[in-house]
UniProtKB/TrEMBL annotation:
Substrate binds at G84, D85, L86, I87, R106. One of its GO terms (biological process) is regulation of RNA metabolic process. This is 4-hydroxy-4-methyl-2-oxoglutarate aldolase. Its cofactor is Mg(2+); a divalent metal cation. GO terms for molecular function: 4-hydroxy-4-methyl-2-oxoglutarate aldolase activity; metal ion binding; oxaloacetate decarboxylase activity; ribonuclease inhibitor activity. It catalyses: 4-hydroxy-4-methyl-2-oxoglutarate = 2 pyruvate; oxaloacetate + H(+) = pyruvate + CO2. The keyword Metal-binding applies. Homotrimer. Its EC number is 4.1.1.112, 4.1.3.17. Keywords: Lyase, Magnesium, Metal-binding. NCBIfam families: NOT-MenG, PRK09372.1.
Amino acid sequence: MSETAQMVQPVPATADLADEHGEALQSCDVQLRQYGGVAAFAGPAATIRCFEDNALVKARLAEPGEGRVLVVDGGGSVRTALMGDLIAASAVENGWAGVVIHGGVRDTAVLRTLPLGIKALGSNPRKSAKDGAGERDVPVTFGGATFMPGATVVSDDDGVVVLP
């Protein structure tokens, strides 16, 4: 999907989706913060599970995003950042709609200026390891929601949901 087409399509409100789908909708109850320049974003999920190592995140966001949302289960650690300004800029260049990180980010002043949806637990200026430890394209679960590769993820100021 082109960047222009992505901007034209409205993102449904998570509250409206919750009303429409009821208990069939999975809502992530982890209180993630907005860090990106785009508050509402949606797309098919791509997934990564890693812990304090962002090599897989960097590699994945360097691939064509095609309007997808990268969901990263970083184990809830904010001891190191799994994404900063350079990796986020790569995501923008490669057509990703957003990134949801159950972990930390850094370079938050720059992240706010990028046309990318970014949700994360918190921030820390400390770099992560670069060993490539972790898994990609696997189901990841946090905050009571399971993110399956390909499932539709919607995020806005109210939260992050996974469509049934």
